[in-house]
Design a protein that fits this description.
Layout: E1 6-12, H1 16-27, E2 34-40, H2 45-55, E3 61-66, H3 74-84, E4 89-94, E5 97-99, H4 103-110, E6 115-118, E7 122-123, H5 126-131, H6 134-138, H7 145-150, H8 160-163, H9 166-175, E8 187-190, H10 191-196, H11 209-219, E9 223-226, E10 233-235, H12 245-260
Parallel strand pairs: 1-2, 1-4, 2-3, 6-9, 7-10
Antiparallel strand pairs: 4-8, 5-10, 6-8
C-alpha cells in the first residue's frame, strides 16, 4: 500500500455534529493525497456511527484512534494517533475546525525540512456555526465574506484571512505580530521531528499543551514558519466545560521548565522514560 503524503490528525470528543461538518470539508480539498486519523478522547457511540457513515461517503481513508473517557486526555490520544499515522508529514487540527479547500495543499506546499508550520483560525459565532451544512461547505460558500456578512460577521482586519490572495497572504504572514507557535487547530510538522521530541507531554491537560510541543521542537532546532493567512480554517463555536484554572496553572509550570531548561524531549510522551 502506497503511503499518503500527509496524515491529518483531527482531535474530537462527543461532538459528532461539528465533526461531520469538518469531515465534509476534507472531501472538498484540492490536494487529495492524505489520510485522516481521528484522535478520539473517549467519545460515545454516536461518534462511532458517524465515522462509519462517513467512511462510505468520502474519498479519503479514515483511521479512528479511541480510548476510554477518563477526563481531558487529549495529549495521550494525540500521541496514540501519531503512531497510527502512515505519512512522514503530519497536519494537526481539531474536530471543530472546517478546512478551506486549499488547507491541506497549503501545508503540503510550505512544508520544509527542520521546520514546522504555524496557522490560526477564523472564529465563528454559534449562530453561523449552526447553519453551516454539507452544501455550504462543499460549495465553499461558508468561506465567502459576503455570505458571512449577510449572516452577521462584522468588518474587521481579521477578515483578511478569508479575502487575501496568495501575494497579500504571504505579505501578511511576514508582518504579523502573532507568535509562530504550535497551534493544535492548525499546525504541521515532520513525524520524525515530532517523535524525536517524544510527542506531547501527557501530564498536560487543557491550556498550552500544544504550544509546549512547539517549544520543545524549537529547542530541538526545528524552526516555525507562519502561515496564518495561507492555511485557513473556520472555528465552530462551542462551550468549554473542560477549562480548569488548576490545569492551566500546572501546564504553565511545565512550559516554564521547558523554556528555562531548553528541554527538547519530555519523559512523559510517546515513550515513557
Amino acid at each position: 500500500m502506497v503511503k499518503p503524503s500527509i496524515s491529518v490528525i483531527i482531535s474530537t470528543y462527543n461532538s459528532e455534529a461539528w465533526l461531520e461538518k469538518v469531515l465534509w470539508s476534507y472531501e472538498a480539498q484540492t490536494f487529495k493525497d492524505f489520510e485522516i486519523v481521528i484522535a478520539d478522547d473517549g467519545s460515545k457511540q454516536p461518534t462511532f456511527d458517524l465515522i462509519e457513515k462517513m467512511k462510505a461517503l468520502v474519498h479519503y481513508n479514515i483511521i479512528h484512534v479511541w480510548h476510554e473517557d477518563n477526563g481531558f486526555q487529549k495529549t495521550i490520544i494525540l500521541n496514540k494517533a501519531i503512531l497510527a499515522c502512515s505519512a512522514n508529514y503530519l497536519l494537526f487540527t481539531d474536530g471543530d475546525c472546517i478546512a478551506r479547500n486549499d488547507f491541506v495543499e497549503m501545508h503540503f506546499k510550505y512544508r520544509k525540512p527542520k521546520h514546522f508550520l504555524s496557522g490560526g483560525y477564523f472564529k465563528l459565532p454559534m449562530a453561523i456555526s449552526t447553519i453551516i451544512e454539507k452544501e455550504t461547505i462543499l460549495s465553499q460558500k461558508c468561506f465567502d465574506l459576503r455570505w458571512l456578512k449577510r449572516h452577521g460577521i462584522k468588518t474587521s482586519f481579521k477578515n483578511n484571512k478569508l479575502s487575501s490572495g496568495p501575494l497579500k497572504a504571504r505579505f501578511l504572514n511576514l508582518i504579523s505580530p502573532t507568535n509562530a507557535s504550535w497551534n493544535g487547530h492548525n499546525a504541521s510538522g515532520w513525524k520524525d521531528d515530532i517523535v524525536s521530541v517524544n510527542g506531547f507531554d501527557e501530564r498536560m491537560q487543557y491550556g498550552g499543551e500544544d504550544r509546549e510541543l512547539g517549544e520543545r521542537l524549537v529547542n530541538f532546532g526545528v524552526k516555525p514558519i507562519r502561515i496564518r493567512y495561507s492555511a485557513i480554517c473556520l472555528h465552530l463555536d462551542h462551550a468549554r466545560g473542560y477549562v480548569d484554572s488548576k490545569m492551566i496553572e500546572k501546564n504553565q509550570q511545565i512550559r516554564t521548565t521547558t523554556k528555562k531548561k531548553k528541554l527538547t524531549r519530555t519523559s512523559f510522551g510517546i515513550e515513557k522514560v
